[in-house]
Amino acid sequence: MRYLILGCGPAGISAAKAVRGKDKKGEIVVITEEQGPPYLRPLLTELIMGRADVAGIADPQAQNLADRGIEVRRGKRAGKIDSAGNRVLFTDGAEEAYDVLLVATGGKPEIPPLLEKEHPSIFPFDSLDDTLRIADRVPRSGTVAVYGPGFLAIVASSALRKRGNDVVWFQPDLPRSGYPISGELEANILDSVRNTGVRIRDGQDIVAIREAGGGIEIESTEKGERVRCLAVVVATERIPAIGFLSGSGVKTGTGVVVDDYFRTSVPNIYAAGDCAELFDGGTRISRINFGWRSAIKQGRIAGENMAGAGKRYVREESDYFWALFGPALLDRIR
Ligand SMILES: Cc1cc2nc3c(=O)[nH]c(=O)nc-3n(C[C@H](O)[C@H](O)[C@H](O)COP(=O)(O)OP(=O)(O)OC[C@H]3O[C@@H](n4cnc5c(N)ncnc54)[C@H](O)[C@@H]3O)c2cc1C
Predict the structure, then answer these.
(1) How does pLDDT run across 282-325, given as a tens digit for each residue?
(2) Which residues line ligand 1 (CB under 6 A)?
(3) Domain of residue 93, CATH code
């Protein structure tokens, strides 16, 4: 049996280990587009603040995978799935066969066209490479703008503020999904962010950016407002990274549509973690359970089922974002 797992985040790693727990002999290969060893994405802000280095945020879950007979291949991006031929085609021209496939490719930030361009003062914030770029190139003092609707913009603003920057946070809108912060909690969080000195531009979008003396001038939807800054950190919502499934026959909505066993519409293909859209037969609502622990739990069950367990996912409200990895959000801000 050959198990192929796309993505080496928490969902992919926990799935690989769970497969091994059930199938001692099968071949397990995890493939990811990232070049470096797996890391704890929730601790990326520690790098921005200079409180940890890359080794300090290594993912302990990924230790000893080779000893368990789990092969990890890096730097390879899946480009297409040939589900009739049980093959994954990679963008470098290589292909890999599978008997059972797991899609655990997580999410990628949705960046508005205005901020999408390659520009020395625009910094996406999602991966380790992005974060190293921010840590290296964004000066530790002076004004930095943060752009994004939700959780990632909150943690980015707080981290930049703590390292010494003046921060202006453009919060254009509510996130489209995965934002259970509301009511009193949201008010408390925003107050805490504000109290640290972050200037929140609630409901304001960026409509134009211009070069301005080694930095950027931002024009926002607030009439007459111009903000000059050294850099713009783009911390937007993560949207499932599943474009390569187009034409594969795997049913997708916002994410890969899965049932309570993490099975997709193609029998030998599963999906778990931030890329999976779980359909709840009870409420008839589909949703994506963003979050580190949720990804581990989903990956584990998916992995067991790939090896024949037939285990059903039991929903718990805490799986949905609240079971965050790391310190509570309010503690991170203060
Ligand atoms: C900056 C930041 C801070 C966060 N902080 C927290 C937090 O404090 N608490 C919390 O619970 N959650 C946090 N999250 C969310 C959390 O990291 C995710 O929920 C979790 O990583 C999802 O795990 P995953 O395995 O589904 O996907 P991911 O961790 O996204 O891993 C997917 C992997 O697949 C790879 N991949 C994508 N496309 C392809 C392809 N085509 N071919 C091959 N490989 C591919 C990706 O490069 C990535 O390595 C944070 C996220 C970010 C970006």
Answers:
(1) 778 788 888 888 899 999 999 999 999 999 998 776 665 554 56
(2) 6-12, 31-34, 41-42, 44, 77-78, 104-107, 125-126, 152, 155, 241, 244, 273-275, 290-292, 295, 324-326
(3) 3.50.50.60
